[in-house]
Amino acid sequence: MPLSLIATLCFLTTQAPGATLTPRDSAFHALNRLAYGARPGEADSIARVGVMKWIEQQLDADHVPDPRIAERERQFKILDYDRGDLATRYRDAQRERQRMQREAAATGDSTQMRTARPMQEFRQLGGELQQLAIVRAAVSERQLREVMVDFWTNHFNVFVGKGADRFLVPSYIEETIRPRALGRFEDLLIATAESPAMLFYLDNAQSVAPGSTPPAQRRPFSLGRRRFGMNEMPEERRQRLQRRPPPTGINENYARELLELHTLGVDGGYTQQDIIQVARIFTGWSIEPPDRGSGFVFRDWAHDHGTKHVFGLTFDDDGKDEGIKLLKFLANEHATMHHVSAKLCARFVADEPPDGCVDAAVAAWQKTHGDIRAVLRAIFTSPDFWSAQAVRSKVKTPFEFVVSAVRATGVEPDDTPRLAQLVARLGEPLYQQPAPTGYAETEAHWVNSGALLARMNAAMMLAKDCSSIPSIDDHAQLVDVIDQKLLAGTMSAHTKSVILEQLTDITDPGQARALAVGLALGGPDFQKQ
Amino acid sequence: MTISRRIFVKAGGLAMVSLGLDPLFLARAAFAARRPIGPSARPILVCLFQRGAVDGLNMIVPHGEPAYYQERPRIAIPAGDVVDLDGHFGLHPSLAPLKELWDNKSLAAIHAIGSPDGTRSHFDAQDYMETGTPGVKSTGDGWMNRYCQHDREHADTPFRAVAFGPQLPRILAGSAPSLAIDDLQAFGLRVPQEAARDRLTRAFEELYDGAGTGLLASSSREGFDAVQMLKRADPTQYRPAAGVEYPPGRLGKTLLQIAQLIKADVGLEIAFADCSGWDTHVNQGSSEGQLSTRLRELGLALAAFNRDLGERMHNVVVLTMSEFGRTIRENGNSGTDHGHATAMLALGGPVNGGRVLGRWPGLGVEQRFEGRDVAVTTDFRDLFGEIVARHLGATDLAMVFPGYTPSPTRFLGAIRG
Question: pLDDT at position A113, please?
Fold first, then answer.
């Protein structure tokens, strides 16, 4: 039977294509992959609606009612500030820090450094960014969109700790990634290429054609616009900054990662010469200074106006359009479709995804010119997604582990950095992966002895706040309720018997509940998805 | 599952794949196979990363170089304060506690060392030094982890590679198991009473014993083994050797814990720790001041570590590293800005000490990198490569430093032959 027919039938019957799974197990599987795990009872309610119908709803995220998230988002001040506001706040914090450094060096007293107000405020905003990601992942009804925001944020990774990215990353997430998470790959690729956060992170902002001279160099600082913060700097520092040599050549970093990570993949069949041509095409793609809002700017003076030949295409002095033409070409190259589809399948199906689902995704990509929803639909209707080998085969990442535990136990993710710090302690501090590869998706990367002990500790901590499980005197009944609510009835017989054995001499129902929930969350069953 | 590590090593991964088993899992399962680890002659490498770019010129002072004093009227170390080493170079006075190690030839300094990549970004330069691939940003793992991946001979304990800190640093990231330990005394399950902690540990142990095969089972076993090993070693009872006092602060505490692990004979091969506060753009100070305070802590901590380990230092190498050096000329704020080459320290029994290693390029304007910074004459991979090969005994440096093969002809002779 052709794949498309299977897919059609699936939607008609609203049954998952995996004949071996019960409707409830299918729903639990879908919740583990398309969502951040199941809330108590959710697998049953989705099984009643029909899992394929639920998947279609998730793909049409805009029409999923999501009343609670707006109210929660209002608590996050960081959403009230645009890029310019954050740049100003960052500058204030920096100045304050420098002033205090000078003071501390003069007096030998560094105890006040940490308490400086603008610095503290800016640090808090950074914490909010992480906590907001956790609240959205835990609370939003548009679960698949949140999963895809995380996927693309990681695919187009930007490290928040690198210089200006401290204030550029929030708008990168809100304005570049989020609106396009379920859109077209090409649009997303172009948006990331133009984003100040990426331009700064991979150094393209300072990539200039060799021999080009900025107008400001010809008449330094006399164009009416002051350089950022220049007027308030001590004289010597100002001189030092003015002496700093301007960039003098192309920087290949973005070009290399664009080909290797964002599009074609490391085996995509390009050469070092291709990287140089691509870097030449992107010369001039830069960022406005912070006092003009740090937005994207194309600097014609920095652009390499020569002719470039790459991938069989010719780029002939066409300014910014050269880059756009190249990105559109790359977005629909076969190597790109295959590389990104395989990565999506590694996320949704298995660490080493079978060819079947990857091929289905590529076919959908080709047919729809990279409509992300169509690609995802092809994966979710592929038999590989529902195969017995795929179900519960993947280990949760630290972020998935914490958010799924929060959802299962009914812990309300508050607006303190507590949960974000927990995710960081487990090894995945959000937005803080320095390497452009983003975080790894595979079990081998996340499972090691120290990390597992840390998960057990996290589980015991989260269990204390568990509100989804009532206190029950009867231990067997308690374990059964935990199995149903936390694991949708998939707890192994071994886990059940070990937990029961541990409860034997515990009479206090509250204590029994905390221990049993902690063991269930920290045990092997809950690490899997 | 009992498959001896040796069989795995001999048969290699492929034989196991034919049995339908995952080689990575097997490799890790093999680590759990206990074998007695006595106070062996196993070589140990301890690395301290001076994050923020230490001013190599004020750490190992070229007091014989007039340009040094011309360029640094306010922050140079007066010749009278420098602890002279060889007539040309000397230690910052705050490092005086290390002079004894220089004299007994177990301390070497390496000058004009750094990255072939010219970046002055902390972020990029640290990344390159940790991945071991300067100029290549997409390297996923760190060079220390790659060493562990390709040298399975030593892979038998969860404490083989330990980073002291809340998270695994880039240098140890990768598929070979390595531990991040924030505090040795708090490692394991966090339950206040010992009896309750033991009970919970046993409960989780049983849960994972039933997890069958795979990484979850083998890694949890490693974790519980580590907890047991530490319990036997009882870190809460640790007392440094008589008369040894570590300086207060994080660095002293970390080195004390590394000494503890070494003495506990739990199979430690690589220990890594950060030590920060070197980004001295403003009021760096001279013989006294900001940098002096940091160096004093470093010198006292290293000297204490050396005395605490005593005889055991015969197979320990301590290496300091930093992402780049600082400008030769002091800036308008009596500090220094981001430069290029810096200095590193190597100490321990195997170190060919009492010498400043590496070719000194001089501070003359025409000898500088980009006209302003100390030029790099030793690629950091040549030093790291020598230590990994001659001290730890690695045979395949091409795997540890892909795209670059440190050649014995470029080794500095930091390790005794």
Answer: 58
Q: Say if pTM beats, i.e. exceeds, 0.90.
A: no
> Can you spell out the DSSP letters for A24-73?
HHHHHHHHHHHSS-PPTTHHHHHHHH-HHHHHHHHHTGGGS--HHHHHHH
Average pLDDT of chain A, as a whole number: 89
| pLDDT tens-digit map of B322-354 | 999 999 999 888 899 889 999 999 999 999 999
Contact B325, B55 (CB under 8 A): yes
Determine the distance in angstroms separating the CA of B106 from the nearest CA of chain A, rounded to an integer. Answer: 34
* CB of A495 less than 8 A from some CB of B: yes
pLDDT value for B125? 94
Please indicate whether, in this complex, the C-beta atoms of A257 and B138 are within 8 angstroms of each other.
yes
Q: What CATH number should be reported for the domain holding residue B74?
A: 3.40.720.10
Query: Strand (E) positions, B1-65?
Result: 44-51, 60-61
In a domain, B289, yes or no: yes
Model confidence over A179-216: pLDDT tens digits?
999 999 999 999 999 999 999 999 899 899 998 888 86
Q: Where are the domains of chain A?
A: 3-59+352-386, 184-215+250-349, 398-527
If you measure CA to CA, which chain A residue comes closest to B222? A449
pLDDT of residue A245: 55
Of B373, B298, B371, the residue nearest B338 (C-alpha): B373
Q: And the tokens for A4?
A: 């498309």
Q: Which of A429, A447, A501 sits opposite B215 (nearest CB)?
A: A447
Chain-chain contact of A444 with B219 (C-beta, under 8 angstroms): no
Helices (H), A39-164: 42-49, 51-59, 67-73, 83-107, 117-139, 143-155
Please determine, for the modelled complex, whether the ipTM score is greater than 0.90: no
Residue B285 included in any domain = yes
- Pairing type for strands B83-84 and B161-164 reads unpaired
* Domain coverage including residue B361: 43-186+245-410
Burial class (CB in 10 A: 0-12, 13-18, 19+), B167: middle
Q: Would you call B123 and A495 a contact, using CB atoms and an 8 Å cutoff?
A: no
Alpha-carbon distances, residue B245 vs A88, B165, B239 (angstroms)? 46, 22, 10
Q: Each residue of B362-400: pLDDT tens digit?
A: 999 999 999 999 999 999 999 999 999 999 999 889 999
Segment-wise mean pLDDT, segments of 10 residues, chain A, 529 residues: 50 56 96 98 97 98 95 93 91 85 70 69 89 97 98 97 92 98 98 98 92 67 40 46 62 91 92 93 95 93 97 97 98 98 98 97 98 98 96 96 97 89 91 89 84 93 94 96 97 96 94 96 96
Nearest CA in chain A to B190: A457
Round to whole Å and give the CA distance between B147 and A274: 32
Q: How many domains does chain B have?
A: 1
Which residues, given as ranges, of chain B have pLDDT below 50?
A: 1-38
Q: Counting beta carbons within 10 angstroms of the beta carbon of residue A312, is it exposed (0 to 12), middle (13 to 18) or buried (19 or more)?
A: exposed
* Number of A–B residue contacts, CB under 8 Å: 148
Tokens (6 digits) for A42: 């959710």
Q: What is the pLDDT of residue B31?
A: 37
B192 in any annotated domain: no
Kindly state whether residue B89 falls inside one of the protein's structural domains. yes
